[in-house]
What we know:
This protein is of the alpha+beta class. It has one domain (15-132). Helices cover 26% and strands 11% of the residues. It is built from 3 helices and 3 strands. It has a 3-stranded antiparallel sheet. A hairpin with a 5-residue loop joins β2 and β3. It is globular, with a radius of gyration of 15 Å. The model has no long low-confidence stretch (mean pLDDT 83). It holds the Pfam family Raffinose_syn. It comes from Trifolium medium. This is Galactinol-sucrose galactosyltransferase-like. Keywords: Carbohydrate metabolism, Glycosyltransferase, Transferase. GO terms for molecular function: galactinol-sucrose galactosyltransferase activity.
Amino acid sequence: DDFWCTDPAGxxxxxxxxQGCHMVHCAYNSLWMGNFIHPDWDMFQSHxxxxxxxxxxxxxxxxxIYVSDSVGNHNFKLLKKLVLPDGTILRCQHYALPxxxxxxVDPLHDGKTMLKIWNLNKVRHNTTYIILF
Length: 133
């Protein structure tokens, strides 16, 4: 659901709205299905207009981080932000979830609510990470 439109930016309603739609679906799918599957937040393109948005969400998703770039067309500056200098990924302990105040609201259509997702990382003494979209 991230690149299915004919608009070159990927969304007839606005590039950022469609990318937000993707994150909302991933976050709420993790909430509903995370108890019996390990949610996968899908791949992203590292040169897309919303690539940093996608990279941040994958960083705390708890799932794999992979890109769907064309061969030789990678944004290594962005991708290097997702790993340690030795290439190790600081994977979170669980799957990312929406915060309680993000439940039962509509961040895609109400024009005022931000999606907030969180996860834990045991490498940093069980640090809680919250990202606002």
